[in-house]
Write a structure and sequence with these properties.
256 residues; alpha/beta; Rossmann fold; seven-stranded parallel β-sheet; 9 helices
């Protein structure tokens, strides 16, 4: 049973879905997000609806000082059963068209914060010989498309990083899960980078409900399997992409 969990990117999307599900199961939560109002509203909702104990940690994970503050806070906890690194954002555009700071922010949010928070919780998990970490990659990491140079590259790092952690800690009682979804219905695609016309390129059946995704991830934790790809169509595309069984030009036409 998961009694304590730390979730980043908790106010929206995948992070919020994890928080809602775990609160309903009685977990004590430390929720991290940069949107103070949305985070506070979620904390109140989970407390009112489920009686959950929730601590809201407002932090911009593109800011190294905020990362360190959160890492110090969670490393001081007596116990963390689950860390979910769900914070992230997309910015599909040609590499040279984006502000240089956007690239640095993506590195900080997707890579540096995930590394920092894994380092913060692992000593306690190893000492107790229990605990789990869920890191979220993306099938975009297999598509070397010009519009997602940084997003795909940071998610490929998460893939390799999680596999190395799994090899290191699987015999120390710590479970590492690498989630590799494709398209998930969340607020992620509501930014100005994604137009309605662009989103129409993705067939309706290929969009996954976020709660289905997080439920599958939590169920799989008990198995100890590394890679989690919920959903029939997502599994199919994962196999095709990871084994390079489909021409890249065709896959790029279907990506956004």
């Amino acid at each position: 049973m998961i009694e304590t969990a730390v979730i980043t990117g908790a106010a929206h999307g995948i992070g919020k879905s994890f928080a809602t599900r775990l609160a309903a199961e009685g977990a004590q939560l430390w929720l991290v997000d940069k949107n103070e109002d949305a985070l506070a509203a979620l904390a109140r909702q989970l407390t009112d609806r489920h009686g959950a104990k929730v601590e809201a940690l407002t932090a911009n994970l593109a800011d190294p000082s905020d990362q360190r503050r959160v890492a110090d806070r969670i490393s001081a906890l007596d116990r963390v059963d689950l860390l979910v690194n769900a914070a992230g954002f997309g910015a599909p555009a040609a590499f040279h068209d984006l502000d240089p700071e956007a690239h640095m922010e993506m590195l900080d949010v997707h890579v540096t914060s995930a590394v920092r928070f894994c380092r913060a919780v692992l000593p306690g998990m190893v000492a107790h010989r229990r605990g789990a970490i869920i890191n979220i990659s993306s099938q975009i990491s297999f598509l070397y498309s010009g519009g997602n140079a940084m997003y795909g590259s940071t998610k490929r790092f998460i893939d390799a990083f999680s596999r190395n952690l799994h090899a290191t800690y699987k015999r120390k009682g710590v479970r590492i899960q690498l989630m590799v979804p494709a398209y998930v219905r969340t607020s992620f695609h509501e930014s100005d980078y994604y137009s309605a016309e662009t989103l129409k390129k993705v067939p309706g059946f290929f969009w996954m409900d976020v709660d289905v995704l997080t439920s599958a991830a939590l169920r799989q934790l008990s198995t100890g399997r590394l890679v989690c790809v919920p959903g029939f169509w997502h599994k199919i595309t994962y196999v095709l992409l990871s084994r390079y069984l489909v021409p890249m030009w065709l896959l790029r036409k279907l990506s956004i």
